[in-house]
Amino acid sequence: MYVAVNAAMSVDGKLASREREQLAISGPEDFARVERLRAEYDAIMVGVGTVLADDPSLTLDDPAAHGEPPADHPTRIVADSRARTPPDARVLDETTETYVLVSEAVPTDHVDSLERAGVSILEAGTSQVDLAAALDRLEATGIDSLLVEGGGELIFSLVAAGLVDELSVFVGSMLIGGRDAPTLADGTGFTEDYPSVNLQSVSELDDGVLLEYEVDCENP
Ligand SMILES: NC(=O)C1=CN([C@@H]2O[C@H](COP(=O)(O)OP(=O)(O)OC[C@H]3O[C@@H](n4cnc5c(N)ncnc54)[C@H](OP(=O)(O)O)[C@@H]3O)[C@@H](O)[C@H]2O)C=CC1
Ligand SMILES: Nc1nc(O)c(N)c(N[C@@H]2O[C@H](COP(=O)(O)O)[C@@H](O)[C@H]2O)n1
Questions:
Q1: What is the pTM of this model?
Q2: From first to last of its 220 residues, what are the pLDDT tens digits of the chain?
Q3: Angle at CA 52, nearest 5°, toward 47 and 57?
Q4: 159 lines ligand 1 (CB under 6 A)
Q5: Which residue of 22, 57, 135, 214 is surrounded by the most CB atoms within 10 Å?
Q6: DSSP per-residue codes, 156-218
Q7: Residue 75: beta bridge partners?
Q8: Residue 151 CB less than 6 A away from ligand 1
Q9: Distance between CA 38 and CA 176 in Å, rounded?
Q10: What is the Cα–Cα distance from 68 to 23, expressed in whole angstroms?
Q11: Which atom of ligand 2 is nearest to the CA of 6?
């Protein structure tokens, strides 16, 4: 499966405030670019931390704006080992299909309530979602391309597992600060074998800069 990561960060590398409050780091040009990007992918993925913090919809704002016939909304995917996604989360609405990736540690009653909300549950991994196994199984359902929008914990795990092919980051002209504010790649961090990223393009957008990289997914 082809995996791209897209996110927006401040100049100091933060995705949100230390209170994990969603911030508009992107401006209108970058949000329009993300809308076009979403239409190019079979599925959009986030971690449950982003669902709990932002309650995103992960749908297209205007499917008709992408041509004729209108674009399909991408499938939505949440990495959520213990199925903490609230049944009334926007990502579970009826606009399009949603997979929640869980692990063997998931409480049965959480699965039951998500299944009642119409969610497809896919189990992979023991305590946390085994992302490589889950992506293989999603590919078997016909999902060949995936756009990951965050957050930092999920992005780190995907990079650490060598699953990411490309990375685009909008750097907004703001500072957020805070040692506990989420960054582009959180998790445990690397101490050796730092993944290499190859700069492909730099462009000015809104009041910031869009950086596009190819990620060496063979060498995490
Ligand atoms: N500026 C931007 O572009 C974006 C900003 N954000 C911001 O980021 C913050 C959320 O990021 P963050 O807290 O890092 O949360 P994430 O969205 O990265 O979700 C992390 C959670 O995903 C679950 N998970 C399941 N499997 C895995 C795995 N294999 N590896 C890692 N995580 C896994 C874990 O919960 P469990 O163990 O329960 O499964 C984990 O705590 C919010 O403040 C949001 O506003 C988010 C997206 C984009
Ligand atoms: N590209 C981008 N720029 C920002 O400034 C952001 N805060 C985010 N956040 C991501 O967008 C999701 C919101 O999705 P919906 O519009 O509700 O579909 C949010 O959850 C983050 O993944 N992205």
A1: 0.97
A2: 999 999 999 999 999 999 999 999 999 999 999 999 999 999 999 999 999 999 999 999 999 999 999 999 999 999 999 999 999 999 999 999 999 999 999 999 999 999 999 999 999 999 999 999 999 999 999 999 999 999 999 999 999 999 999 999 999 999 999 999 999 999 999 999 999 999 999 999 999 999 999 998 765 5
A3: 75
A4: no
A5: 135
A6: HHHHHTT---EEEEEEES-----TTS-BSS-TT--SSSPPPEEEEEEEEETTEEEEEEEE-TT
A7: 43
A8: yes
A9: 26
A10: 33
A11: 1
Rounded distance between C-alpha atoms, residue 162 and residue 52, angstroms: 26
Give the Å distance between the CA of 64 and the centre of ligand 1.
30
Radius of gyration of the chain (CA): 17
Residue 24 one-letter amino acid: A
Structure tokens at 99: 């997979």
C-alpha pair distances (Å), 110 with each of 83, 105, 186: 6, 11, 26
Cα of 108 to ligand 2 centre, how many Å? 30
Q: Tokens 């990495």 label which residue?
A: 79
Copy the structure tokens of residue 98: 């949603």
ipTM above 0.95, yes or no: yes
Pairing of strands 98-102, 75-79: parallel
How many residues belong to the chain?
Answer: 220
